[in-house]
Amino acid sequence: MNISRPEQRVLHVLALGGHILHERGEGPKITDITCVTRDGMVLSDCTRPVFDRLRRKRLIESRGGNPYRISKRGRLFVRAQLDNQG
């Protein structure tokens, strides 16, 4: 499966314990998303199109209305990266 760099960055953050908060409007559609790292920082690479592609590929999932987290399938597709924290 071909996964872009922004998708890889988001999956890497989720694999390290991050999550994606989502807000719904009046209907069932998601209107706003925010990707939060395990340290509480916001990841700007997580845009709506990236979120939609990850969801369509079933690499992230939400259970019971909770924030989106990486799925088992997503863990298989995330590539190893060095953590850029100094």
UniProtKB/TrEMBL annotation:
InterPro entries to which the protein is assigned, alphabetical: YjhX_toxin
Pfam family, one: YjhX_toxin
Source superkingdom: Bacteria
Family: Belongs to the UPF0386 family.
Designated name of the protein: UPF0386 protein C4N9_14480
Organism: Pararhodobacter marinus
